[in-house]
UniProtKB/TrEMBL annotation, chain A:
Signal sequence, renumbered to the chain: none
Name under which the protein is recorded: ABC transporter ATP-binding protein
Main subcellular location: membrane
Source organism of the structure: Acetobacter orientalis
Top-level taxonomic group: Bacteria
CDD domains, per the entry: ABC_NikE_OppD_transporters
Length: 334, 359
């Protein structure tokens, strides 16, 4: 079981992190009494204004973790602190005033937009439902002004407001989803594979938009992607996940340039690069094991090129190897 | 190498010339694929790359005679081992499919029936095209699974498709496709649904088919990285037309169509300096209905000027086998070569923006 890496009490984090996750578990009950630990003991924190990338192969629990963070799903065990406040068990009614501060953007740009409603109605809805920070209801002129501002922020013409979701391309629809997430001036956005379904030629536009908004508005992101290159482009820090747990956590540049976990190294080597050069052999053999019967000991040992007997016997804890870096491996590479 | 290696003649295996596919829509014929020409040589892997909707699957389906939407019109020529595929009677095409030309897809579940074991389905495929006995076919199926890197093949053959992982299912599908020693394998996004570490394994398998089975492959993907790592030559499709074609190394070193160049530039790099902003391509590709007059890329092209919007640029040679459908080379203003095209272990750029980073 992964234990949590303690947060060092340095001057830098005298203010609480925006998000503090401690020993988080999310277990799904499957038919025939089986249990699937989609999130299996995760601890991490996200400071104000940073972009934490979550990367890992499909099924490693990225989406589940993302939904847990925003309390869109119930947590099995552990603690989530948002801005210092424990939200793990808050009932929906108590969560409601916090909702404006935490928003989500999904991979499927279409599924999250009601096809029968115009963009103006879709975007105005959260503004009508939620009062302002001072508890006031927004006037319709204030709402209109806000919608115009949002359109400009995400690079859409005002005329888009009068149209319906199906009239837009995938990239434009993702801009609309981003506008909706921004409507209530959130502190935190969890973006779950927001560019994965987009055409290659459109991905870069949306990545840039996320980066610009983050800088302009001082937003904090948890940015989920399975594409390491996308993560490298957008994130300050990265958490590499495998079968529900964090394998490595640290500064994006350090982690990707000099991986400490053999799984991180394999991921960096497996990305097919659009350049001509020596062709690399596949870094790993075999497939990801089923999360229902995950390997004992180190959960990566069945595929790890450097596994030792200790790895099969004992699970390595996520432990700090330098100031800003933690790795869950008995034999870290760095 | 196998004893029953397919033929290797000097003629390319497949010669496609001006292949076009039209479908009726709103009272007129619209083109999904327009004047696509290419060849696939013996033991060559040819990449067909383009964004979704660019016409990759339609091209493959047209070659296989699998396009059956009402009123579809396929014109041009596709000669496979000298035989014309366009207009070939369905009965003959069916015989060719599976035996001489095989196809694999993104989703192996479309190739397998859920109710029979993997092994049984491969055996059936073998028996449909050869005179092997059930026992011999069974043995051959297991051998094929082993050749495709399936561990414990005899046992795996007894599993049902849903009992295999994505990577194993893909290997099983390739085994079934190769069961009758086809000379041409058409692979339509075979790794798109896979994770990168598994994709790397399948790409290695596909690259190896050239020598292990003497196969030629038409490899369809939307991923420029996959093309660079897998294909000998490459066709870049944009809106149903060839934007650029050439040996993969030339095309990546010197992309000569602004679309290819812009697409490559927009991919976030995994090594080397990280740009503050990624170069982008404005808006989105047109649909066959909204394709503009002239160059289909013109509305998004930074170099677009009057000649681009008046008539469709022809494919012009850049070097021996490298050509681009753009007016720039003929106007004497070709694009500069691409920088950083060779894989190097470059140092990373300066660290990132924000300050405090506790764990
Ligand atoms: N509602 C659910 N019920 C049961 N299992 C689920 C559910 N949602 C996700 N899972 C399983 O949990 C694991 C993690 O899934 P997910 O969080 O979607 O991973 P990722 O986003 O990294 O692909 C997977 O094995 C998935 O099949
Ligand atoms: N049977 C069909 N009838 C009409 N249009 C089609 C048909 N199949 C595909 N198309 C259209 O043809 C274009 C090319 O599609 P396709 O070859 O599937 O693209 P790709 O495989 O490159 O993603 C798309 O615009 C698609 O909508
Ligand atoms: S023909 Fe013109 S519009 Fe088309 S790619 Fe070349 S420069 Fe751009
Ligand atoms: Mg997910
Ligand atoms: Mg397709």
């Amino acid at each position: 079981m992964s234990t949590c890496a303690p947060t060092p009490p340095t001057a830098a984090n005298a203010t609480p992190p925006l998000l503090d996750v401690r020993g988080l578990y999310k277990t799904y009950a499957l038919p025939r009494g089986q249990k699937l630990k989609a999130v299996d003991g995760i601890s991490l924190s996200v400071t104000h204004g940073e972009v934490l990338g979550l990367v890992g192969e499909s099924g490693c629990g990225k989406s589940t973790l993302g939904r847990c963070l925003l309390r869109l799903t119930d947590v099995s065990a552990g603690q989530i602190l948002f801005n210092g406040q424990d939200i793990t068990k808050l009932p929906e009614r108590a969560l409601r005033p916090l909702r404006p501060h935490m928003q989500m953007v999904f991979q499927d740009s279409y599924a999250s937009l009601n096809p029968r409603r115009r963009i103006t109605d879709l975007l105005a809805e959260p503004l009508r439902v939620h009062p302002t920070a001072t508890g006031q209801k927004r006037s319709s002129s204030a709402i209109t002004a806000r919608l115009h501002e949002l359109m400009e922020r995400v690079g859409l013409p005002l005329s888009a407001l009068e149209r319906y979701p199906h009239e837009f391309s995938g990239g434009q629809r993702q801009r609309i989803n981003i506008a909706r997430a921004l409507a209530l001036s959130p502190k935190l956005i969890v973006a779950d594979e927001p560019v994965s379904a987009l055409d290659v030629s459109v991905q870069a536009q949306i990545i840039n938009l996320f980066a610009d908004l983050q800088a302009q508005l001082g937003l904090t992101y948890v940015f989920v992607a399975h594409d390491l290159a996308v993560i490298r482009q957008i994130s300050t820090r990265v958490a590499v996940m495998y079968l529900g747990a964090i394998m490595e956590l640290g500064q994006t540049d350090t982690v990707l340039h000099n991986p400490a976990h053999p799984y991180t190294l394999a991921l960096t080597q497996a990305v097919p690069q659009p350049v001509i050069g020596a062709i690399r052999p596949p870094p790993l053999r075999g497939d990801i094991p089923s999360p229902v019967s995950r390997p004992a000991g180190c959960r990566f040992h069945t595929r790890c090129p450097i596994a030792q007997p200790l790895c099969r016997a004992e699970e390595p804890a996520l432990r700090q190897i330098s100031t800003h870096r933690a790795v869950a491996c008995h034999f870290p590479l760095a | 190498m196998r004893a029953d290696m397919p033929h290797t003649s000097t003629q390319p295996l497949l010669v496609v010339q001006n292949l076009s596919v039209h479908v009726p829509a709103q009272g007129q014929l619209i083109s999904l694929v327009e004047n696509v020409s290419f060849t696939v040589g013996a033991q060559e892997i040819v990449g067909l790359v383009g964004e979704s909707g660019s016409g990759k699957s339609v091209t493959a389906m047209a070659l296989m005679g699998l396009l059956d939407s009402p009123g579809v019109r396929i014109t041009g020529s596709a000669r496979f081992k000298g035989q014309e595929l366009v207009g070939m009677p369905p009965r003959l095409l069916r015989r060719l499919r599976g035996r001489d030309i095989a196809m694999i897809f993104q989703d192996p579940m479309t190739a397998f029936t859920p109710v029979y074991t993997i092994g049984w389905q491969i055996e059936e495929q073998i028996r449909a095209h050869t005179s092997l006995s059930r026992k011999q076919a069974q043995q051959r199926a297991i051998t094929l699974l082993a050749e495709m890197g399936v561990p414990d093949p005899a046992q795996m053959a007894q599993r049902y498709p849903h009992q295999l992982s994505g990577g194993l299912r893909q290997r099983a599908m390739i085994a079934m496709a190769l069961s009758c020693n086809p000379s041409l394998l058409i692979a339509d996004e075979p790794t798109t649904a896979l994770d990168v570490t598994v994709q790397a394994q399948i790409l290695e398998l596909v690259r190896g088919l050239r020598s292990s089975h003497g196969s030629s492959v038409l490899f369809i993907t939307h991923d420029m990285g996959v093309v660079a790592q897998t294909c000998d030559s490459t066709l870049v499709l944009y809106s149903g037309r060839i934007a650029e074609t050439g040996p993969t190394a030339d095309l990546f070193a010197h992309p000569s169509h602004p679309y290819t160049a812009a697409l490559l530039a927009s991919i976030p790099p995994i090594t080397g300096p990280r740009p503050a902003h990624l170069p982008t391509i404005a808006s989105a590709p047109p649909t066959p209905h909204t394709r503009p007059v002239g160059c289909a890329f013109a509305p998004r092209c930074t170099y677009a000027h009057t000649p681009c919007t008046t008539s469709q640029p022809a494919l012009v040679p850049i070097s021996a086998q490298h050509a681009a459908a753009c007016v720039l080379p003929t106007e004497g203003t070709p694009l500069p070569p691409r920088l950083g095209t060779v894989q190097t272990a470059q140092a990373h750029s300066a660290p990132h923006q924000t300050g405090t980073t506790p764990l």
